[in-house]
Amino acid sequence: MSNQGRRLPSDNPNLYSYGTNFLGSRAIFNQRLIYNELIFPDSEYPRLFKTWGEDRYYGTLSTKGNTVTVEKGQLRPISFPDTESQFCLNFVADAWRDFALRLRELSNANIIFRDSPWSAPTVKKAWSPVNEEYYQYMSQNLYPAFNEVFLAREGRDRQIAGIQGFLALFDQFVDENLREIGPLTVSGLLEGSYLSPLVSGLMIEIHDGDYDQDFLKSYVYKDSNFALVQGLAAQYGFAIDKNIPWRLVADLRNPAMREYMYGVPIISFDPDAPPPEDCDPTYTNPESIPRAFGYSQVPGLEDVERRVNVFVEDGELKPGYVQYQQLKEVTSQEKIFEVLYEEAYVETWATDAINLEQYLVDFYNTYAQAIPVTTVPQPLLLGNPCAQRSRVIERSPITPQDFESLYGDRWRLKTFYVARSMERNIDKRRSLHMREVQEIMNIYNLSSQDQYQRALRYAQEQFIGPKPRANLTLDTVGDIIQEPITRRAQRNDLSDLGRQNRVRRNLY
Predict the structure, then answer these.
(1) By the 8 A CB rule, do 145 and 508 touch?
(2) Which of 173, 221, 345, 469 has the smallest count of CB within 10 Å of its CB?
(3) Which of 111, 330, 319, 56 is nearest to 231 (CA)?
């Protein structure tokens, strides 16, 4: 069965796209047109996700319009990792386990061809920590642009005698170059889609390669098994990404995925599974979870077996996750997403300024250690031509405690307001800008407790606000058994790799 899972390109070259980001503009346009309208037309594949398009904020922008990140306590190790441990949201890990096992069963039965990438997939990528991606962006993109380009201009080194001069130049750098260099905060990065959608914890990738290789997508992953695999994925609550077909997305609009959140009636337990521990109603190791078996309650899927999580309540073992039990009777897509974001995510605006502060301290200390000494010109003194024309300045690293004593909460509040306003391109008169900053400070000064949080929330809600929700896709997914609905094809989705390359070029 060496080649039964896919056709030969020579059989019909029109079945494939040969697009990459390294083609000329006309060629890439034509190849991407073939990919979008002939390989994966919306009329034939209406339920494919589009994380390069309309679904770009899925799992990173809440129903309120605020950017969010996953709470680590809601993550679970994934079954069938390729090498090291991979994680995603707990119920997504459960759904993936069942889906991956089903694919292997069908492969062993020779229903899915053995040479297919779908026969026994392993997880190459899953949840990507936001803090790690933020670190990569700040250390490899932002700081080099500031240090190696902006500060390298003649005379600027001499303006830095300490942290004050460093921050003054950084403010100038941001004011002059923010649109070219990109955002400063985690919220700004998420809003601008600078970070991978994998930070959502809702996606799994079974291939580790460049996203722009259309031939790989249309020849290898859209093989003879693809239609079967797509249908099976829907039975376990997953949708395939149109532009990255090796990416599986947990589709909360699909009732099959929600069954892994609140559970299905328990029919039996795996007799070989270890018993639950009464003192620990939650389980983080998938190997220690009692495998409770049940069957789907979704019409048309009653013969689909589900291995569900269990929790202990009032001494009784119950299916699903306790935080999602309220979704059993919920039909509103808006409410489903509201519960998800409330239970499994945190809004990023609350820590934006603190995170930025930590990097600025690190940036300055890195600079001070690399160039610990500089000379600063002295003004000429009339009548004393022999006076020393310059003086030597020794730069000393600064501790977080020293920075706190110099700046503190008021600096963080102003920095948050200014940074987020610039990232949102909120252009205001200087007088209005100063008045709003003063309002924030008044809230801070007049609060008897939780001063910083009260003032920060005021700044977020009154002056920054949520991102418009036009790009959120909360439409109801139809019955997963019904025939596809024709939709008009979308053209020219922007590739992650191409966008990242342009971002990097703009830094210099």
Answers:
(1) yes
(2) 469
(3) 111
Which residue has 């996700």 as its token pair? 49
* Cβ contacts of 160 within 8 Å, gap of 6 or more: 151, 166, 169, 367, 374, 395
Q: What CA–CA distance (Å, rounded) separates 346 from 248?
A: 23
pTM attached to this predicted model: 0.83
Query: How are strands ordered across the β-sheet holding 268-269?
Result: 268-269, 292-295, 305-308
What's the CA gap between 285 and 76, in Å, rounded? Answer: 7
| Cα distances (angstroms) measured from residue 86 to each of 135, 254, 307 | 20, 24, 20
Alpha helices in 345-450 (DSSP H): 352-370, 400-406, 408-423, 430-446
Gap between the Cα atoms of 459 and 463, Å rounded: 5
Helix (H, G, I), strand (E, B) or coil at 239: strand
Q: Which range, of 51-55, 278-282, 459-463, averages the lowest pLDDT?
A: 278-282
Question: At 390, phi and psi to the nearest 5?
Answer: -150, 160
pLDDT in tens, 312-367: 888 888 899 999 999 999 989 999 999 999 999 999 999 999 999 999 999 999 99
Both tokens assigned to 488 = 């008009």
Cβ atoms of residues 296 and 256 within 8 Å: yes
pLDDT > 70 fraction of the chain, expressed in percent and rounded = 82
How far apart are the C-alpha atoms of 161 and 284, rounded to whole Å?
Answer: 50
Residue 82 phi, psi (nearest 5): -70, -50
What gap in Å lies between CA 136 and CA 116, rounded to an integer?
Answer: 34
The sign one gets for the Cα dihedral 324, 329, 333, 335 is negative
What is the three-class DSSP state of 61? strand
162/393 Cα distance (integer angstroms) = 9
